[in-house]
From TrEMBL:
Residues 1-24 have a biased composition (Polar residues). This is Uncharacterized protein. Residues 27-38, 148-159 have a biased composition (Low complexity). The keyword Flavoprotein does not apply. It comes from Tolypocladium capitatum. Residues 193-223 have a biased composition (Basic and acidic residues). Residues 1-43, 148-230 are annotated as: Disordered. Keywords: Coiled coil. Residues 46-125 form a coiled coil. The lineage of its organism: Eukaryota, Fungi, Dikarya, Ascomycota, Pezizomycotina. Transmembrane segments: none annotated.
Length: 230
């Protein structure tokens, strides 16, 4: 190395400039330098150079360690940035999913409200149909009971029986006088029944019309009412 070479050159120059001693001369002449002084200086320079080299090696080793630590922290930093970017991406995806779920929830809530309104409407209609059905059933039962009572009553006690059930027509083998007599008797009885029924018909006409209307509605709506009850 340059420092080492310069030390060696200096040592050689020092040796060449010093006076040579003759054989047997005394080494301790006045003003003469010691014979070992240049060598000691060379050794001291070499030691100093070696110390500097050792220190340089130590500093270089520390610098390499610092570079290694820097590279390690750089890798950790890049890895952390990568994970942070992935976390942000996952966060955005989750936000999009949450927004989609909120929209789906709002749509389902609206559908649920519509379904509840339809259920309430159907329940109300079902209740109305039940009332109508109960009313029609009652009217039908009343009419059936009235018809059964009229059908079971004797001819003399019921004026409606004659109107609903006409007497049998006479056979052709009867005599003309008998047929005429029977027809006159029938006409007389119908006239009497009509006179007895007239005062009552005025008050019952409106009720009968209403029962007829209810009966027709019952016949028209009965299948629908049956489905509603199921």
């Amino acid at each position: 190395m340059p420092s080492h070479r310069s030390s060696a050159n200096t040592s050689r120059r020092t040796q060449s400039n010093s006076p040579r001693q003759s054989a047997g001369s005394c080494p301790h002449w006045p003003g003469a330098a010691p014979a070992h002084a240049p060598t000691d200086l060379s050794y001291a320079g070499q030691d100093f150079e070696e110390a500097l080299l050792d220190e340089l090696k130590d500093k270089n080793t520390e610098l390499n360690k610092a570079y290694s630590e820097r590279d390690r922290y750089q890798n950790l930093y890049e890895l952390a940035n990568k994970k942070l970017s992935e976390s942000h991406s996952a966060k955005e995806d989750l936000k999009a999913q949450v927004q989609g779920l909120k929209e789906d929830n709002a749509a389902l809530k609206a559908k649920l409200e519509d379904a509840e309104e339809e259920i309430d409407l159907l329940a109300y209609q079902n209740e109305v149909w039940d009332k109508h059905y109960a009313e029609l059933e009652k009217n039908y039962s009343d009419l059936s009971a009235h018809y059964s009572a009229v059908a079971a009553s004797p001819p003399s006690s019921s004026s409606l029986r004659g109107a609903m059930k006409l007497p049998e027509r006479p056979k052709s083998s009867h005599k003309p006088s008998g047929r005429n007599e029977h027809r006159e008797h029938r006409e007389h009885r119908e006239h009497r029944e009509h006179k007895e029924e007239r005062p009552r018909k005025g008050g019952e006409r409106e009720s009968k019309d209403q029962r007829d209307r209810l009966s027709r509605r019952f016949d028209e709506k009965r299948p629908t009412s049956s489905r509603s009850r199921r």
